[in-house]
Design a protein that fits this description.
The complex is a heterodimer of chains A (about 290) and B (about 425). With about 290 residues, chain A is an all-alpha fold. Chain A has a domain at about 75-250: MetI-like fold (Orthogonal Bundle), CATH 1.10.3720. Chain A has 14 helices and two strands. Chain A has helices spanning about 1-40, 45-50, 65-75, 75-105, 115-120, 130-140, 160, 170-180, 185-190, 195-205, 210-225, 230-235, 245, 255-290, and strands at about 145, 150. In chain A, a hairpin with a 2-residue loop joins β1 (about 145) and β2 (about 150). The radius of gyration of chain A is 25 Å and the shape is flat. Chain B is built from 16 helices and 15 strands. Chain B has helices spanning about 1-20, 35-55, 65-80, 95-100, 145-150, 160-175, 190-205, 225-240, 250-255, 270-280, 310-320, 325-335, 340-345, 360-365, 375-390, 395-415; strands at about 25-30, 55-65, 85-90, 100-105, 120-125, 125-130, 135, 135-140, 180-185, 260-265, 280-285, 295-300, 300-305, 340, 370. In chain B, β1 (about 25-30), α2 (about 35-55) and β2 (about 55-65) form a beta-alpha-beta unit. In chain B, α2 runs antiparallel to α12 (about 325-335) and α15 runs antiparallel to α16 (about 395-415). The chains are: A mainly alpha (about 290), B alpha/beta (about 425). At the A-B interface, α2, α6 and α12 of A face α3 and α9 of B.
Chain lengths: ~290, ~425
C-alpha cells in the first residue's frame, strides 16, 4: 500500500513535471509551428486565422505556393550561398584568431596583458550600432588587392562582410574563461616535455576545447547568419547580399505574409540543424564553465 | 624595322584607346523596388529602352528592398558613394536635398506641365525630383450598407460634411452589424499616420506645422482648429467608433472585406484587392470636409539626381525619358498606382474613364496636399504620430499638442531652421 502510494506520488510528480516542461517547450515551439503552418496558407486565410488556434492547424487551402512565389521573388539560392560563405569563413577565422588570442592571455606571460584583456572585455558595452558609421568610413578607405591591382575601399565585396567580424571580444573572453579553467599542470607538463607554444596550442589545448569551440561557433554562426544592418550599409549588388536582407523583399505596399513565412521557414532550417548538431557540446560548455579542473 | 615599330606602337595605341573612344558614360541608378518583380521588369524595360535610344549613356541598375532603402542611401552618403540617379520618397526629398545629397533637376521646359502636383518634388523653389505615379486615400464603403441606412453617397464636389460624417458613423455603429463603424488603420504605424491622418487635421483648418515659415508648429498644430481635430479624433475611440492603437494588423487587412468594419480609410493600392473581394458593391468615397475643404495626402516615390553625380545631364536625360506617358501607364497597370498625368491615366487599365479606380485620379488632382515640405519632416512625422497615438489612447488633447509643438520647435531650433530664414 505504501509502495503504491509512493509510486502514485512519484508518477504524479513526474506527470506534473512533464506537463510543465511541455508547456514551457510549447512557448518556444508554437512560433515555429505558426511559421511553418502559415507558410502553407494563402494570405487572407493566414490573416483570418492569426487571432485563433486555427493559426497552428494546416487546414483549408493548404499548398506550397508561397514557397514557389518566395523563390521567384528573391534569388534565394544566391543569398543562401552568400550567407553560408561569409558565415563559414568568418566562423573558422574567428575560432582560430580568438582562440589564439585567448591562449595568449591564459598561458603566456607578457607585459600589459591584464590591461589589454580589460580593454577587450570593456568593448562588450559598445553596441555595434555605435561603431557602424565610423567602421563604414574606415572600410571605405582601406586598400585591397583585387583583380585590378590595389583598390581603395571595401564596399560591395565579400570581405567587407567577413573581416570586421573575425576578431570578437566575446569569443576571446569565452575561450579565455575556458582555458583559464584548465589545469595549469597540463601546460606546465607539456613545457617540461619540450613542447613549443604552437604545439601546446594545437596539440594539447585545442583538442580538449571542443565544448567552447562549439559555443563560439554557434554564437558566431548566429551573428553572421543574421547579419542585416552591416550588409545594408556596405552591399549594393544583389549578387553579394546575405539571406537576411532578402527578408525585406517581401515588404511591399501589400505585404506578402505567406511568402514571408515560407522564406523564414527556409532560413530557419540551417540554424536549427547547426544548433542541433552542436547542441551536446554547447550544453556541456555551459555546464562546465567556471568549474576548475 | 623602324616602320614596324611605328606600326606596332600605333596598333597598341589604338587598341589601348579604343574602349575610351567608344565607351558610353555609365550612369548608376539605385531603386527601391527589389522584391517586386513587376516593378523590376518595368524599370529594366525603361532602362533598356533608354540605353538603346542613344549612344552617350548607359544606365546600370542596383535594386534595394523598400523597407531598408533609406538606410542604404544614408550609409552611401556617409561613404561618399551615392549613385547618379536615386529614387526618393516624396516627403523625404527635402531632407536629402538640404543635406546636400541631391541637386535640382533640370528638365526640358514643359516636361512636367501635365503632372499631378503630388508627383513633383519641389523644395526651396527648385524641382529636385519627379514621380511616375502618385498615391491617394479614400473611404472604402459598401453601397448596399449606405443605402440600407439611408445614407447619401458623397461626391467629389459634395463630400460629407464633418457633422454629417460623424452622424453616419454613429448610425452605422448603432446598427450592431459591425464591430466598428470606421477603420482608420491604426495598426499601420509609421508614415501612415502623417500621410493618412494629417489631412483630417488640415480639413479642420490646422496643420502639422506653420507652412508660411516652416519655423514653428505653434498655432498650426495646437491652435483652435488643431484642438478641435484632436477632440474629434479622441472621440472616435472613446465612442467605440474606430479600433484604436491596439488594432491587430490582420484585422486591418480583413476587417472591411469580411464586413466587420462598415467604412475603411485606405489607399488606392489596396483597391483592386478590395474590389476582387467585395465586387461592384464597393465604393471609393472622398474624404469628409470638416470645414476647410476635403484633403488627402500626396507624393510617393520619385526620381532625382545625386549631388555626387559627375553626369547630371545624363541623369536628367534618363529621368525625362522615364516620365513618358507610356511608361507611367505601364507602371500603373503593373503596380496599381495612379499615373502622374491625365494622358497616362487614360492609357491605363484602372484609371482610364470607366476604369475601376478612375475616381482616384480625380481625388488626387483635386484634393491632394503634399506633406510639409521641410528637411525636418522625418522628425515632425514621428512627433505627430506619437501625439495622435497618445490622444487616441486618452491623453489630454491640448497638453499633448502643446508638448508636440514644443518638441517640433526645439528640433527646428536645434537644426537652425532647416535652411529656412529664422
Amino acid at each position: 500500500m505504501t509502495t503504491m502510494t509512493w509510486e502514485t506520488r512519484h508518477r504524479l510528480i513526474v506527470s506534473l513535471r512533464y506537463t510543465l516542461l511541455i508547456l514551457i517547450s510549447a512557448i518556444f515551439i508554437f512560433p515555429i509551428v505558426f511559421m511553418v503552418v502559415s507558410s502553407l496558407k494563402p494570405d487572407l486565410q493566414l490573416l483570418r486565422d492569426s487571432g485563433s488556434l486555427l493559426a497552428f492547424l494546416p487546414y483549408g487551402d493548404v499548398s506550397l505556393n508561397n514557397y514557389a512565389d518566395a523563390f521567384e521573388r528573391v534569388p534565394m539560392a544566391q543569398f543562401a550561398f552568400n550567407s553560408i560563405f561569409t558565415t563559414v569563413v568568418a566562423m573558422f577565422a574567428s575560432i582560430l584568431l580568438n582562440s589564439m588570442a585567448a591562449f595568449s592571455f591564459a598561458f603566456l606571460r607578457w607585459r600589459g596583458k591584464a590591461l589589454v584583456l580589460s580593454l577587450i572585455i570593456a568593448t562588450f558595452i559598445v553596441p555595434f550600432e555605435v561603431i557602424a558609421i565610423p567602421l563604414l568610413l574606415v572600410v571605405n578607405s582601406l586598400p585591397w588587392i583585387g583583380p585590378q591591382g590595389i583598390e581603395v575601399g571595401w564596399l560591395n565585396t565579400y570581405h567587407v562582410q567577413i573581416l570586421p567580424f573575425i576578431a570578437d571580444s566575446l569569443g576571446i573572453f569565452l575561450f579565455y574563461q575556458y582555458f583559464r579553467d584548465l589545469p595549469d599542470e597540463l601546460v606546465e607538463a607539456s613545457r617540461i616535455d619540450g613542447a613549443s607554444i604552437w604545439q601546446i596550442y594545437t596539440r594539447i589545448i585545442m583538442p580538449i576545447a571542443g565544448p567552447i569551440l562549439a559555443t563560439v561557433a554557434i554564437l558566431k554562426f548566429l551573428v553572421m547568419w543574421n547579419a542585416y544592418i552591416w550588409p545594408l550599409m556596405t552591399i549594393r549588388s544583389e549578387e553579394l547580399r546575405p539571406i537576411m536582407v532578402g527578408l525585406q523583399y517581401f515588404f511591399q505596399l501589400n505585404t506578402q505574409w505567406g511568402e514571408i513565412m515560407a522564406y523564414l521557414s527556409v532560413v530557419t532550417i540551417p540554424v536549427l540543424i547547426f544548433y542541433l548538431a552542436l547542441q551536446r557540446a554547447f550544453i556541456e560548455s555551459i555546464a562546465t564553465s567556471g568549474i576548475k579542473g | 624595322m623602324k616602320k614596324a615599330m611605328l606600326t606596332l606602337t600605333l596598333v597598341v595605341f589604338l587598341v589601348a584607346t579604343a574602349p575610351m573612344v567608344s565607351a558610353q558614360t555609365e550612369l548608376s541608378m539605385w531603386y527601391h523596388g527589389a522584391g517586386n518583380y513587376v516593378e523590376r521588369d518595368l524599370i529594366i524595360q525603361i532602362i533598356e529602352d533608354f540605353n538603346a535610344s542613344q549612344s552617350e549613356y548607359v544606365v546600370t541598375l542596383e535594386e534595394f528592398p523598400q523597407e531598408s532603402y533609406n538606410s542604404s542611401i544614408v550609409a552611401a552618403a556617409a561613404a561618399g558613394d551615392l549613385p547618379d540617379i536615386i529614387d526618393v520618397d516624396g516627403p523625404v526629398m527635402p531632407g536629402w536635398a538640404w543635406a546636400g545629397w541631391m541637386v535640382p533637376l533640370s528638365l526640358s521646359e514643359g516636361a512636367l506641365d501635365d503632372f499631378l502636383p503630388g508627383a513633383i518634388g519641389e523644395w526651396n523653389g527648385e524641382i529636385y525630383s519627379v514621380g511616375l505615379w502618385d498615391a491617394a486615400v479614400s473611404i472604402y464603403a459598401r453601397r448596399s450598407a449606405l443605402e440600407a441606412n439611408d445614407i447619401r453617397i458623397p461626391t467629389l464636389d459634395d463630400p460629407w460634411t464633418g457633422e454629417e460624417f460623424d452622424a453616419i458613423l454613429e448610425t452605422l455603429q448603432a446598427t450592431g452589424d459591425y464591430e466598428y463603424a470606421f477603420d482608420l488603420g491604426m495598426a499601420w504605424t509609421g508614415e501612415w499616420y502623417p500621410y493618412a491622418f494629417s489631412p483630417f487635421l488640415q480639413s479642420f483648418g490646422g496643420d502639422m506645422i506653420d507652412r508660411s515659415t516652416y519655423l514653428t508648429a505653434e498655432g498650426a498644430l495646437n491652435g483652435e482648429a488643431g484642438v478641435a481635430f484632436g477632440n474629434w479624433w479622441q472621440s472616435l475611440f472613446q465612442r467605440g467608433l474606430a479600433p484604436g492603437t491596439s488594432q491587430d494588423g490582420a484585422d486591418r487587412e480583413t476587417g472591411f472585406i469580411d464586413g466587420r468594419y462598415a467604412l475603411q480609410w485606405n489607399g488606392n493600392w489596396a483597391g483592386i484587392t478590395a474590389l476582387e473581394a467585395v465586387g461592384d458593391d464597393l465604393l471609393f468615397l472622398p474624404a469628409p470636409d470638416f470645414g476647410d475643404g476635403s484633403t488627402i495626402g500626396a507624393a510617393s516615390w520619385q526620381l532625382g539626381i545625386s549631388s555626387t553625380s559627375e553626369n547630371p545631364e545624363g541623369a536628367a536625360a534618363f529621368i525625362e525619358f522615364a516620365i513618358q506617358d507610356e511608361y507611367l501607364a505601364a507602371f500603373s497597370d503593373g503596380i496599381g498606382l495612379i499615373p502622374a498625368t491625365a494622358n497616362a491615366a487614360a492609357m491605363s487599365n484602372s484609371y482610364a474613364p470607366g476604369g475601376p479606380l478612375e475616381v482616384y485620379f480625380a481625388l488626387s488632382e483635386a484634393q491632394a496636399l503634399v506633406r510639409p515640405v521641410t528637411p525636418g519632416y522625418a522628425t515632425l512625422a514621428l512627433i505627430f504620430e506619437k501625439a495622435l497615438a497618445d490622444i487616441a489612447n486618452g491623453a489630454d488633447v491640448q497638453d499633448t499638442l502643446d508638448a508636440a509643438v514644443d518638441e517640433i520647435d526645439a528640433d527646428i531650433e536645434d537644426n537652425m531652421g532647416y535652411g529656412f530664414d529664422m
